[in-house]
Predict the 3D structure of the following.
Amino acid sequence: MKIGIDSRMYGPKVGGGGLGRYVEQLVTELQATDDTNRYVLFLKKENADACKITNPHFEKRVADVHWYTLREQLSMASVIDREGLDLVHFPHWNVPFMLKTPFVVTIHDLILLEEPRSARATTRHPLVYRAKYFAFRQVLGNAIKKSRHIIAVSEFTKQSILKHFPDVDPKKITVVYEAVTSLPASPEGEAHGELALPKGPYFLHIGNAYPHKNLESLLHAFSFFVREHPEVSLVIAGRRDVFFKRLEREADEIGIPASSLRFVADPSDAQIAELYRHASLYLFPSRIEGFGLPALEAMQEGVPVAAARTSSLPEILGDAAVYFPPDDIEEMVAVMERSLSDKPLRETLMAKGRERVGMYSWKRAAEETRRIYETAL
């Protein structure tokens, strides 16, 4: 077969943390394991050089068209169709309407349908927002309806698809779990020096600050916790966009001491690794997640995890985390207390976390995805 992969989101620097990593690892593992099929990778100028070809069955094409745009809908179909592919894989729902090539699509989550607050989170004029949201619904529906097969990254995501698109045959959806990428090594102490992190224990959250991440609740819970534990700090790292800036203002308004809170904007992979390695607890208060990769990354680095008992998180993290209701501030504070002071619990979480990470494999994910390619037609 001749298979295309829309790799424009390749790498976390271009495609964003979760999506970029997914495309990067899928391409890497397919190159390492598939010597039968031929592949064409569609990349942007920004990541074309970063995507290294290690298998002669793979070749690159530059398709410098940004996602979620009208230009994508008008031009990407012809770019892909002229390659004469048997099948193309879209790692996200942004499939061009006019595409003639058969395709499979990966759906990571349906947050914009499940979480109204994040769906309405925008800096655009209301009319522009409504037009774009309408377009999103149409493009997503087209991807779901016309795909030969749908890959969901969790059972939660599969059930979300079936809830919002009840006409879809459940057999058309296969759950293929993602996995954890080994984080880069960096000199000991780099985070504390270069990033000026707290000298004492600190709690950590890494990721974007969209409303569904529920970080406002985390800040309020920590504002109560830190009154009794002034030696503990909170570190929040992520892309410094409008939502991140709102979070900074919120922290100031509720009076969290500046010495107890650290915002790290746009951290590199090496800095993220150091942030994990020195953390005392990883906090994941999100109201909805398709998979929850940062929590597994924390477990990989031996950090205990406390997460919201919601969406895919109990499915992915199992008994390797402690849980709290996402909107219960008092329970969130209690979990912080218990996770910090209960040494046997911490040791249990660390051991179970490393075991849990071992359940997920990018190699297995690529092999399962390849089987979907070969049966989709």
The radius of gyration is 21 Å. Residues 79 and 131 are 26 Å apart (CA to CA).
